[in-house]
Write a structure and sequence with these properties.
The complex is a heterodimer of chains A (498) and B (426). Chain A is α/β, with parallel strands linked by helices and 498 residues long. In chain A, 32% of the residues lie in helices and 13% in strands. Chain B has three helices and 26 strands. The N terminus of chain B is likely disordered. In chain B, the strands form three sheets. In chain B, strands 1-4-5-7-8-9-10-15-16-19-20-21-22-26 form a 14-stranded antiparallel barrel. Classes of the chains: A alpha/beta (498), B mainly beta (426).
Chain lengths: 498, 426
Amino acid sequence: MKYYIKYMALLAVLLTACEPEFENSIEDEGFYSNGDVDFSNFVAVGNSLTAGYGDGALYITGQETSYPNLMAKQFSFVGGGEFNQPLMNDNLGGMVLGGQQITENRLVLSVGANGPAPKRLAGNPTTEVSNLLTGPFNNMGVPGAKSFHLLAPGYGNPAGVASGASNPYFARFASSTDATVIGDAAAQKPTFFTLWIGNNDILSYSTSGGVGVDETGNLDPSTYGSNDITDPNVFASVYSNLVTALSASASGGVLINIPDVTSIPYFTTVPYNAIPLDAQTAAFVNQSYADYNNAMATYAFLGYISAEEATARTINFQAGQNAVVLSDEDLTPLPNPAGGTLPMLRQATSEDLIVLTASSILGTLADPSNPSSVIGVGVPLSDQYVLTTTEQASVTAAQTSYNATIQALAQANGLAFVDVKSALAQVSTGGITYDGGVLTSTFVTGGTFSLDGVHPTPRGYAYVTNLIIKEINKTYNSTVPVVNVGDYNTITISNDVN
Amino acid sequence: MSKNFTLVAVFLIIAATSYAGGYRVALQGQRALAMGHTGVAYVNTAELAFFNPAGLVFLENRLNISAGVSAVFSDVTWQNETFGQTSDTNSPTGTPFYLYGSYAATEWLSLGLAVYTPYGSSVEWPTDWAGSHLVNNIELASIFIQPLVSIKISDKFSIGGGPIFVTGNVNFNRNANRTLSDIDGDRSNITVDDSGVTNWGWSLGTLFNITDDFRIGAHYRSEIILDSKDGEATFSNFPNDSGTPIVVSSTTVIPSNGTTGFTASLPLPAEMTVGLSYDMSDKWTFNFDFSRTFWDVYENLDINFSNGLESINPRNYENSSTYKFGVQYVANETIALRAGYYFDESPVQPGYFAPETPRNDANGFTAGLSFNINQKFAIDASFLYLRFDEVKASYDYYQENGQNVPFKGTYKSSAFIPGIGITYSL
């Protein structure tokens, strides 16, 4: 009997060890192939998109779903190593410098009396810029960085953050006060890399409605303002240096191009004809523009402006949806018979892109005591809220040139090239189906873009991750598994807001 | 973010991995189990109280008691090759038990009592695993208590049966959907918990002694529906602590954290068994049983929460059959050896393969022995190995945005179940 019990006990122990096993487990070596490349030390270089920024902030859960981090998880099946990120201190996302908050908390969708709207999450952020992190970090994505910033010594100098001379995100994890982003990346001797840079070289100009300068022709980036377009030759030279630095140790890498601004909801959400009026109000408003309209006709007759410009500048409201009245610095300055110059006004056309942030001021009163000071009607929408066709042309010209550079350098160096521009254009025009629906670029509900209207949601980043993985597999004969886009979150809802 | 996404997906209740199709746990007697869980016509011990109470009246002894317990080591591993996802259950060891007694009141009447656990399940996936929108963990237990009468109509023919009182418990947790979380990324989830859910059923069997060596039997156990009404549902990690739902749109509602009531029904299906037992010689006995479990009652698992949310989960089980064979060899007065085999058809249909019940067809291999300590006491031991094929399967009826989102992968299950019991007869 005693023996019997003993054997039963022994049996029980043996049984717990008998776990079910697959004939071909995905965890077996060789199930997935690394192809021609070594994924053991993966370094990602770029801007906010690489960092995992979204909802107007960088925060931990967003960083966890950054495309480089998602890629690194999939690389673990094909020899990938650890992937370290300079994580923020919380999920609020705001940053503090010397106790003073310098960047805002993340946006969440809050439901108030007037329905759902993006608001800043309440709470005191705890990410103190001066608490420096010790690297190295595989994710070298620095929010706000333009191409040439990656080569700039001191871009992560904590002493320069307060004055705006350096970048608070890079200041947290730069290896030294005069380190460069690319230097810190290359020092890790990556065996594989991604580079996605250049977005901000056109985006800050675009999001600010073209108030900056198109610096094409100016080869000295140290003279650029923060909202300027980077000269394409500067971009080409910088980009080539970046690729060379990263390629030195790598067995392979990925270059990612620059999407169109028209693919992101920041520029496509507010319609050009956002002004609803009834017939009576329209007639009243038209009355107040009668003098301006007459002046345009006169200047056209006198040959100061073309008939087309006069037509474009003639303000006319009707019952129904009306185009926004805006100021356009690219219109011809005209003398005001009463002295000075006439305002450079016109109504928006479907070609104009009105930025997302205009939605909070359009239709409000510029002067609360003056009922006819409605912004977009009686008071023009100022230049910073509109990316006009002329400004769009500057953006597109630079973008086209950058993208040509990126693709040519990918080809020349045998690197994978990811055409995110075309992929996001497809999201924006027709949408991309996934297992739980369709990803579109519609603000809030489309699933691809976060509440800042510019950066992807985790699901959007997962989609980008798959674009990159597929291109890697094609270029390097590997079989890295993709991620399940539907497993990743979109926007976050919370009423815990300021 | 639609109503389905947050409301419908919000839940379900039961089901499970277990050791016969669905959440049936076919471990109701060590001697019968050692012979492929056959016993509807096998007149040997008080295990008849479960397998066919009509046979109790034919037991030789006046008082018969059988009791036993099994240890269920059952695990499931899952992987999705497309996405590089893999997960293993870490399920607690189940311990189904039984206790049977019969007493021959007269030559033609025996009275009995049976306590057994034919339905239950315990599956624990890693929290927030890839299928966590379907199940994180589930614990389902039921105890059947059944007083019995067994009446000899003639030397050839008897009937037996009795009412069944069932008491059940359930605890089930799953995530609200594939993505919803609070601000810190902790996944929104719901636990439903209820215990002491009771209901009544019955069973009735007959036995024919065609010859002294050859018997046939039939036994039917009724369906019992467990209606959970007094349980508690706990909503956790939703991005809403306000106590009232946040209505984002007509299709997106975020419930508040906290507890609420719920109602749900879980059917314990009826089972019909017919079979034979043939004493080939003094030493050899052969059993064959055929069981049909009427799983088609399990169409949906619908949970209605007191806060107005609901969860509809199609199950669409179909009736399933089990074919069971067993032999016994009485080596000497002390030792009897047994072995058996059964084929167990899964009630789960293609497209309804949910990770709470990741069950495909199984081949059961059984063995065991009895050791007679003396005339009265015997120790019974059994061992069951359930072999499953690796299966590519999916559950297609989870919905987001009003469309079905299949959860796919390859499953491989295994179950090793040693059991021990005693038989006492006087």
